[in-house]
């Protein structure tokens, strides 16, 4: 089946089995290996991508459902100002999640701070509960998300 | 810079089309003898490997222990690898794997840990000091209790795997997600029957391991090596997450029986402790676990007379392995929960009783070990009690708990515990090993560190850079930690977080200090090497229980406060307070962050059901989730008399379970004796109390 969709801002097309998982398409067909896969059951958060601005576990998305949709992976998100808001915030407070889980967490944080006026602690805890890697200090992570929010607010991005 | 995920290749990224994929065919019964294997017709590009096809050594070795790389005909546990099916088309392999039928004669099973037979005892240690029988005879009260802890998985997020290819030297290059690359190299060289120098182990980027990739990685590396050796093509072996959780080595389950005699004032007179640990089918590290569990069994309390019997038992469970503390977790859970019962029997508060019985400075621990540095247990307990307002809360919650039939409002409880952490291995397993780190100051002023120790996290790597940069007065960004590759770095031994902090950090310091001394006398580049060997004299002797077990011991105390709904039994943590004396702290912020993340992990593992095959088969999620509600965490470090850095990461796992269990028990006026403390175990305890009360009323 031929499926057209937008991947990291570019229109792409793929001829594949309709039930193939989005994570496999991203990694195998497009070679975007920074998006990770660990559990294949939608629980661990390592394969998080943005689908139409919403975060989803790519291992639970059959490729036919993304027809004509916008997908953003960590590769497409890296280098954007939004990405720097988050990276700089976590860097400043020396909160360093393990590199395996952080890619998924970054996209989830972006979605959180875009969709909440001021993300409160329970919002951030809910985010963390979708990412089962317990590699980092929770209070530092909360602080990092808040600082990322302030970085974005400072740039005026949230007012748009 | 933080972009630690940029350009990182993890083991799961090493697959490329055209590589041979390896599927592990596992045993479906926990014990038995293979009576036959029926295979489908295999296409020409698909192959299969069994025990007899292994080219040379058929066992995996870890220190002095070994286990078969593939099942030798006798099934030892459910999920034991029996065959390796390999080919290039994963879907085809899945279909073929489902058509392979293994027949078993299933009359060969071992008893469980609860009902073990003498033949199942792998190792037994007995220790006795003083005259326990005489002291029991004169004890004012004798309290006997049994505690149990279940097996636990590390829940490291990243999958386990290995990739292999033939190298130019006619050997193999292996990429292995391992914490112990030289052990992997030795095992691969032995199983292929080729010299070690022809085997090269490269360690890719790794997520946080929680000690889950210590020795099991060697098994997968051998599989990839064997297939590549046979086919002459690159191969890739990655095990599914569910298999990893169910079948790779986790923390050993335990049953610990405490019998303690106390005098009229509540002081310990004598203790008798009986310990059984489930070492699973292949006791690879159980010697170390049993040594450590004995060391910590009587806790940090003065005990005039003591007897300990500890045994590791072979069962039909997957092999148990390294996990934070390696035995300390189990023994401190039982010992600290028992301490609360002793306090209650003496009519004292848990804090008061602990302060009365804890080892004073320079007094030996019950096991016979004499601390070379003063022990500040009183101060630790006072600090953590003050931080948490323990005394007031304990008094208030004790009063509230007495109103058993009051179901209005949530029930709060508070628990306290105290422990120590040994850093590095303590048994004789390492006595002939020598671990090395080298450093090179280059002409451009940058420093390269060479070690096979894999930093557990970015913080450890950052700490090493900061220390090296500080000593040599160079920018930490100019300190490079070279990629772990066995042909480029010296053997620095197995990488455990506490070991990295203590032994490896000291070696890095020594290397940098040596460079500092000679940097203005010798031309650049200057390269130095420093090694560590366990002391041959006065090392720990597990037979006589004497000597120095660890290069450094850290100490800690913690308080946990909980709130439980008495109707739904839904529990939340209100706060955790932890005080530690862990030697020289290199970076307080990083140390606090590390302890905090371990506190959260410990809370999760203390309240989460252990994984079981039956849950996996039902499709029930096996991965843990973070607590939905945040809780306050406060950590304090005491100024230490020890000038070396000590480990910190294992303290929460030894402290939190007992304090949490006590807090839950207090809130609901029950006595929890099993770990994990799930809502189901709370319900069973309440049910038991209710049945007992009904029987009493009927009588």
TrEMBL record, chain A:
PROSITE patterns: 2FE2S_FER_1 (PS00197), 2FE2S_FER_2 (PS51085)
Keyword Iron-sulfur: yes
Leader sequence residues: none
Keywords noted in UniProt: 2Fe-2S, Iron, Iron-sulfur, Metal-binding, Oxidoreductase
Keyword Iron-sulfur: yes
SUPFAM superfamilies reported in the protein's UniProt record: 2Fe-2S ferredoxin-like, CO dehydrogenase ISP C-domain like
Protein name as annotated: 2Fe-2S iron-sulfur cluster-binding protein
Automatic annotation (TrEMBL), chain B:
Pfam family, one: MoCoBD_2
Gene Ontology MF, one: oxidoreductase activity
Residue intervals of the Aldehyde oxidase/xanthine dehydrogenase a/b hammerhead domain: 6-108
Keyword entries, A-Z: Molybdenum, Oxidoreductase
Name of the protein in question: Xanthine dehydrogenase family protein
Organism: Candidatus Thalassospirochaeta sargassi
């Amino acid at each position: 089946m031929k499926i057209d969709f937008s991947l990291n801002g570019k229109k792409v097309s793929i001829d594949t089995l309709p039930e193939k998982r989005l994570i496999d398409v991203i990694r195998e067909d497009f070679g975007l290996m920074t998006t990770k896969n660990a559990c294949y059951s939608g629980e661990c958060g390592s394969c998080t991508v943005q689908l139409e601005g919403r975060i989803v576990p790519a291992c639970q998305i059959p490729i036919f459902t993304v027809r004509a949709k916008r997908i953003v992976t960590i590769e497409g998100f890296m280098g954007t100002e939004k990405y720097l808001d988050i990276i700089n915030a976590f860097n400043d407070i020396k909160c360093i999640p393990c590199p395996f889980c952080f890619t998924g967490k970054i996209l989830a944080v972006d979605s959180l701070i875009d969709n909440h006026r001021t993300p409160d602690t329970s919002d951030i805890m809910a985010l963390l509960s979708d990412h089962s890697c317990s590699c980092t200090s929770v209070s530092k992570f909360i602080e990092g998300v808040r600082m990322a929010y302030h970085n974005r607010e400072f740039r005026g991005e949230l007012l748009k | 810079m933080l972009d630690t995920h940029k350009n990182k290749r993890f083991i799961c990224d090493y697959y490329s089309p055209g590589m041979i994929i390896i599927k592990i065919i596992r045993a479906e019964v926990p014990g038995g003898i293979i009576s036959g294997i029926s295979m489908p017709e295999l296409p020409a590009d698909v192959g299969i490997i069994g025990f007899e096809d292994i080219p040379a050594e058929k066992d995996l070795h870890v220190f002095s222990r070994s286990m078969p790389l593939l099942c030798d005909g006798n099934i030892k546990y459910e999920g034991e690898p029996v065959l390796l099916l390999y080919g290039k088309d994963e879907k085809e392999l899945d279909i073929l794997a489902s058509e392979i039928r293994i027949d078993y004669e299933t009359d060969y099973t071992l008893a469980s840990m609860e009902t073990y037979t003498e033949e199942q005892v792998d190792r037994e240690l007995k220790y006795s000091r003083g005259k326990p029988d005489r002291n029991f005879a004169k004890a004012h009260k004798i309290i006997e209790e049994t505690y149990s802890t279940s097996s636990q998985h590390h829940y490291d997020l990243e999958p386990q795997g290995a990739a292999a290819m033939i190298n130019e030297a006619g050997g193999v290059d292996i990429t292995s997600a391992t914490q112990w690359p030289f052990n992997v190299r030795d095992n691969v060289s032995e199983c292929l029957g080729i010299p070690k120098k022809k085997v090269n182990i490269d360690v890719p980027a790794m997520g946080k391991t929680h000690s889950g990739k210590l020795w099991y990685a060697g098994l997968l590396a051998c599989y990839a090596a064997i297939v590549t050796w046979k086919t002459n093509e690159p191969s890739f072996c990655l095990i599914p997450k569910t298999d990893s959780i169910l079948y790779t080595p986790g923390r050993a389950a335990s049953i610990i029986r405490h019998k303690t005699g106390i005098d009229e004032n509540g002081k310990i007179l004598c203790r008798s402790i009986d310990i059984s640990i489930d070492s699973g089918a292949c006791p690879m590290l159980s010697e170390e676990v049993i040594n450590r569990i004995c060391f910590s069994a009587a806790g940090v309390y003065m005990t005039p007379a003591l007897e300990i019997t500890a045994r590791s038992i072979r069962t039909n469970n997957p092999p148990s392995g390294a996990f934070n503390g390696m035995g300390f977790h189990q023994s401190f859970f039982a010992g600290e929960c028992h301490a609360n019962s002793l306090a209650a029997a003496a009519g004292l508060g848990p804090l008061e009783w602990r302060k009365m019985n804890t080892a004073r400075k320079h007094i030996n621990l019950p096991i016979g070990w004499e601390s070379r540095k003063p022990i500040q247990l009183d101060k630790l307990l006072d600090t953590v009690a003050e931080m948490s307002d323990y005394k007031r809360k304990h008094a208030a919650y004790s009063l509230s708990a007495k109103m058993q039939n009051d179901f209005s409002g949530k029930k709060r409880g508070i628990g306290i515990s105290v422990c120590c952490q040994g850093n590095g291995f303590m048994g004789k397993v390492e006595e002939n090993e020598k671990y090395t780190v080298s450093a090179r100051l280059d002409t451009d002023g940058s420093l390269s560190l060479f070690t096979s120790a894999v930093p557990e996290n970015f913080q450890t790597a950052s700490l090493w850079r900061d220390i090296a940069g500080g000593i040599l007065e160079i920018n930490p960004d100019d300190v490079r930690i070279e990629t772990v590759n066995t042909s480029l770095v010296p053997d620095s031994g197995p990488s455990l977080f506490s070991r990295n902090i203590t032994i490896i950090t000291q070696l890095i310091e020594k290397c940098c200090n040596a460079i500092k001394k000679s940097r203005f006398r010798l031309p650049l580049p200057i390269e130095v090497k420093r090694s560590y060997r366990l002391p041959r004299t006065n090392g720990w002797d597990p037979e006589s229980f004497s000597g120095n077990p660890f290069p450094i011991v850290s100490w800690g105390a913690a308080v946990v406060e909980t709130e439980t709904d008495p109707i739904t039994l839904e529990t939340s943590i209100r706060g955790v307070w932890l005080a530690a004396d862990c030697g020289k702290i290199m970076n307080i912020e990083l140390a606090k962050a590390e302890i905090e993340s371990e506190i959260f992990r410990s809370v999760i593992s203390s309240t989460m059901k252990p994984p079981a095959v039956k849950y996996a088969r039902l499709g029930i999620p096996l991965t843990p989730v973070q607590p939905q509600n945040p809780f306050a965490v406060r950590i304090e470090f005491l100024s230490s008399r020890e000038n070396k850095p000590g480990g910190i990461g294992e303290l929460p796992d030894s402290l939190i379970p007992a304090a949490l269990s006590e807090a839950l028990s207090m809130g609901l006026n029950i006595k929890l004796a099993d770990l994990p403390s799930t809502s189901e175990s709370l319900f069973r305890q309440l049910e038991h109390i209710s049945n007992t009360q009904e029987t009493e009323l009927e009588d």
